[in-house]
Amino acid sequence: MRIKAVLSFILISFCITSKSQAQTGGLMNSNIPVSTKWLLDVAGDAGRTAVKSVYMIACPKTGLKGTGFLLKSGHLITNEHVIRGCQANEIMAWSSFGVQVTFQRLIVDAKRDLAVLTPVEKQPGGLTLGTDENLLVGTSVFTWGFPLGYNGPAPLFSAGYLSGFIAYRKDADGTNVIKHLVVNGAFNPGNSGGPLFSPNNKVIGIVVSKHAPISEFHLSAIKALPENQSGITFTATDDKGKQTVLVESQVVAGLLQYFRDLTQVMIGEAISVSELKTLLQENKITLPE
């Protein structure tokens, strides 16, 4: 669920300018955004905790955007592919209250596609982790996040059902595998890194991808097009006046990838919470049970 930098740098510039209400100490401003107020009024106790703990994550350097969530330990969790190519101080997050958060430390695990961020200033609240053991197919699950071009301030709700499991090889010999939960639900680019909840409002997974069927031939063509440097050139200008020169094949590749990202097959995947727990333990971070 990656958004190509060719198209997304304009989106990220908009995110930064429209959400730059930085505040100190992670404290809520008395001027809570109206849409956030409306959502908190109808979300219920558990829903309010989730809304307050889910953040939009962006890295202007790469033009990538996704979702992250706060643990009670004070750490923010997201996917590695959301912040790939960025250092901790190059990543920004925004809460549903318009609070801008910066980071001082970053832990990444590319194989698990997980990242752990430590804010410069600890944020209030946070979520607890559940368990992925004994989950039944057909169990209702849901997530909150910032899909596609939606930039908040409050996250959007998406629900589905647990459909099954997938095991990915972590090592070449296949002795260690990474567990993914398969969900029949609407996951879109921008939902990556969001928390997947069980009916008891515990985090049981981290949204990571959606299924968008495509042949290897067409996929390799989309990947090859951006590498071409010849042809008619176009100059794209964002709202800050920054210009990027692209050749026609790069524009075509960006559009093809964009529309593929919009394809909705209603089958997505989430990294099992057990993978996150293992990563936290490996880095001596107390589990927020």
UniProtKB/TrEMBL annotation:
Any one GO MF annotation of this record: serine-type endopeptidase activity
Leader peptide range in chain numbering: 1-22
Keyword ATP-binding: no
Keywords from the UniProt entry: Signal
InterPro entries: Peptidase_S1_PA, Peptidase_S1C
Protein name listed in UniProt: Serine protease
Protein's UniProt keywords contain Signal: yes
One Pfam family hit: Trypsin_2
Organism: bacterium (Candidatus Ratteibacteria) CG23_combo_of_CG06-09_8_20_14_all_48_7
GO biological process annotation, one example: proteolysis
